[in-house]
Amino acid sequence: MVAAALIGSAAVGAVGSSVAADKAAGAQKKASQLSTDTQRQMFDITQEKLSPYVSAGNTATNMLVDKLPDLTKPIMLDQAALEATPGYKFALDQGLKSIQSSAAKRGLGVSGAALKGATQYATGLADNTYQNQFKNNLDSSNAIYNRLFNLSTLGENAAAGVGKAAQETGANIGNNITNAGQAQAASHLQTGQSIGNFANAAANGYRANQLTDMYGGGSSPSSTSWDW
After folding, report:
1. Across all residues in the chain, what is the average pLDDT?
2. Alpha-carbon torsion 179, 184, 187, 188, what sign?
3. Which residues make Cβ contacts (< 8 Å) with residue 170, sequence separation at least 6?
4. DSSP letters spanning the chain
5. pLDDT band at residue 113, thresholds of 50, 70 and 90?
6. What pLDDT does 21 receive?
7. Which pLDDT score is estimated for 222?
8. Backbone phi, psi, residue 87, to 5°
């Protein structure tokens, strides 16, 4: 009876420990899966929110690459380009008329002084127009470059944000898988230990049963013949 009680108690303990370990492992697995699903959902949301910026950055980068040859080529302005400048011809005509009128009033007509004054005015107007046009072209190229570069940088930062989120999500999911595996391994280990404990208890119960049978008829240790 004692042996049966010991074996029964050990069996109940082994089964209970195994069931508890399995439940703990199952709970850990469910928690890990829930965490994994949440991580993936948050990554999808992050990617969706940053996607327009990534797309805009890609477009701007492609445009910038296409426009670089024009944006970096030397600025060439000839006389034809200066004459095509809005207001240049009008300013030249008005200036020359003013000089001629002034010379006529002084009785100089088309004298050398009048021609010199006209030449100096035309040269100064051309120089000023050239400087202004050069600066305008340079400012325009820089403005285009800066706008495209800033948008490209915005896309780069958004892409980096998606990449960082992907790395963090991958690391967290990896940890979840590891934790679930460790919990499952611990469950198997606990089950094995429970089975081992049950086997030991069964062996002890068997020995106790033998001893009970030996002494159950009233014989004493001194009068019993031990056969091992």
Report:
1. 73
2. negative
3. none
4. -HHHHHHHHHHHHHHHHHHHHHHHHHHHHHHHHHHHHHHHHHHHHHHHHHHHHHHHHHHHHHHHHHHHHHHHS-----HHHHHTSTTHHHHHHHHHHHHHHHHHHTT-TT-HHHHHHHHHHHHHHHHHHHHHHHHHHHHHHHHHHHHHHHHHHHHHHHHHHHHHHHHHHHHHHHHHHHHHHHHHHHHHHHHHHHHHHHHHHHHHHHHHHHHHHHHTTS--GGGPPP--
5. low
6. 57
7. 46
8. 85, -10
| Total number of residues shown for the chain | 228
| CA–CA dist 102, 90 (Å, integer) | 18
Contact 71, 145 (CB under 8 A): yes
In a domain, 36, yes or no: yes
Is residue 222 assigned to a domain? no
pTM over 0.70, yes/no: no
Token digits for 164? 């960082």
Query: What total number of domains does the chain contain?
Result: 1
Which residue segment(s) compose the domain that 187 sits in?
2-214
Alpha carbon distance 47, 169 (integer Å): 12
21 CB neighbour count, 10 Å cutoff? 21
What pLDDT is stored for residue 60 in this prediction?
Answer: 92
In a domain, 48, yes or no: yes
Phi and psi angles of residue 168, each rounded to the nearest 5 degrees, phi first: -65, -40
- Does residue 117 fall inside a structural domain? yes
